[in-house]
């Protein structure tokens, strides 16, 4: 059964408006984030810049972990109600996942602090990454992710995406420049402090807009959330997202162990440059998220139509971006500094790996929304193990190129498996 005419028109209008937001979010967001990273590379040594990227990766992965998939499952739980102007369940959803996030983030902060006191590994504040300080940003990032998903579920894509894609890096750049103007220099802990302050500003803005748009009512709706059933939906989504992020970030952690210190900064510059491909992919998938569950409920033809619509947009967009990066990559790397051009081959490999995975990303999300998230998690875990093993073997031999090879091989095999699972599942239906 296909969408009704009114639903088609509504979805069509939403996608047209969303496409405009998508273009702004991807292009201006990349410029803003790149500007922030360039500011850091000019303010810190390549060693310090690499340390910051590792600390940031730790905070990002931890913020996904402590939510247990609350941000991922939000459109599935909230889209229908918000589309009908019913906000009675939003506070219950937010409250449920906030309690979980605050509890688990407390454990992360305490554990990180204990490790730092014991001077274990890179959590030693006196010698290496200030992970204890950045760990306090973890619950804030998680809270911001929930607010963004509420706005996304209500189809306010600009308010969901632009504050984090554009406002956040612009705020961080402004605060870093202010620190340098006042102090003539900036330390790594001060960079992290500017990030925390910027996150607080963005969260405050989004909360204000949610209240202004009447998307939440601070009243309990205890029957909306069945804890066990809700977590059964969200945890597989969290695991799939976490594994994908871990595959993208494990290279940095393993380079810390096996490569020279300055190479971590060079690899970080390459991943920052290539990262516009995953940004575009995630943004496009986010555009379609509120439409997936209704399409699946409408039947095979509606689901098939929406799937191929999203798949086409992703493939065309990421391919054009990849071609642009291949042409302009060396120039973009040189903006970080003359020695960063050494990472050009690493950049080329990462572009290929991210592009191939982007072709399978919508299939991965679709399987999760169609109650086949278990297979996505299995593929992700195998991919993570493979990536770690390849990093262990290739980094000592090839340095940052070895890390990029590991990522490209792992993501390519993961993309193949996901597409095969998606094809098999569609045939069964």
Automatic annotation (TrEMBL):
Its main location: membrane. This is Membrane protein involved in the export of O-antigen and teichoic acid. It is found in: Cell membrane. GO terms for cellular component: plasma membrane. It comes from the Bacteria. It comes from Pseudoalteromonas denitrificans DSM 6059. It is a multi-pass membrane protein. Keywords: Cell membrane, Membrane, Transmembrane, Transmembrane helix. The chain crosses the membrane at residues 20-36, 56-75, 96-118, 130-150, 162-182, 188-208, 229-247, 267-292, 313-337, 343-362, 374-397, 403-423. InterPro entries: Poly_Biosynth_Transport (IPR050833), Polysacc_synth (IPR002797).
């Amino acid at each position: 059964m296909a969408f009704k005419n009114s639903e088609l028109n509504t979805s069509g209008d939403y996608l047209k408006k969303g496409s405009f937001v998508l273009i702004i979010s991807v292009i201006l967001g990349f410029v803003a984030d790149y500007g922030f990273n360039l500011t850091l590379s000019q303010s810190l040594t390549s060693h310090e810049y690499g340390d910051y990227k590792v600390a940031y990766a730790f905070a990002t992965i931890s913020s996904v972990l402590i939510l247990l998939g609350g941000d991922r499952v939000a459109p599935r739980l909230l889209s229908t109600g918000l589309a009908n102007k019913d906000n009675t369940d939003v506070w219950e959803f937010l409250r449920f996942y906030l309690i979980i996030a605050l509890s688990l983030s407390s454990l992360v902060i305490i554990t990180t602090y204990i490790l730092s006191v014991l001077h274990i590994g890179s959590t030693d504040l006196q010698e290496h990454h200030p992970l204890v300080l950045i760990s306090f940003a973890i619950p804030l990032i998680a809270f911001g992710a929930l607010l963004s998903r509420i706005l996304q579920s209500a189809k306010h894509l600009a308010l969901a995406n632009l504050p984090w894609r554009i406002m956040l890096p612009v705020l961080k750049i402004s605060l870093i420049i202010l620190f340098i103007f006042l102090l003539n220099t900036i330390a790594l802990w001060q960079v992290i402090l500017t990030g925390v302050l910027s996150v607080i500003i963005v969260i405050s803005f989004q909360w204000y807009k949610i209240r202004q748009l009447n998307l939440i009512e601070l009243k309990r709706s205890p029957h909306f959330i069945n804890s066990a059933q809700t977590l059964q939906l969200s945890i597989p989504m969290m695991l799939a997202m976490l594994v994908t992020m871990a595959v993208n970030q494990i290279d940095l952690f393993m380079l810390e162990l096996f490569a020279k210190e300055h190479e971590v900064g060079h690899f970080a510059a390459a991943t920052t440059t290539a990262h516009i491909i995953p940004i575009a992919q995630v943004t496009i998938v986010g555009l379609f998220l509120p439409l997936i569950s209704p399409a699946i409920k409408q039947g095979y033809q509606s689901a098939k139509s929406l799937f191929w619509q999203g798949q086409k947009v992703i493939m065309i967009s990421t391919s054009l971006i990849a071609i642009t990066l291949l042409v302009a990559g060396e120039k973009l790397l040189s903006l970080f500094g003359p020695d960063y051009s050494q990472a050009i081959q690493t950049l080329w490999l990462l572009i290929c790996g991210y592009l191939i995975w982007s072709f399978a990303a919508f299939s991965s999300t679709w399987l999760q929304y169609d109650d086949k998230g278990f297979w996505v998690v299995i593929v992700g875990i195998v991919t993570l193990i493979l990536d770690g093993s390849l990093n262990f073997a290739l980094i000592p031999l090839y340095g940052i190129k070895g890390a990029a090879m590991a990522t490209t091989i792992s993501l390519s095999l993961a993309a193949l498996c996901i597409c095969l699972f998606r094809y098999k599942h569609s045939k069964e239906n």
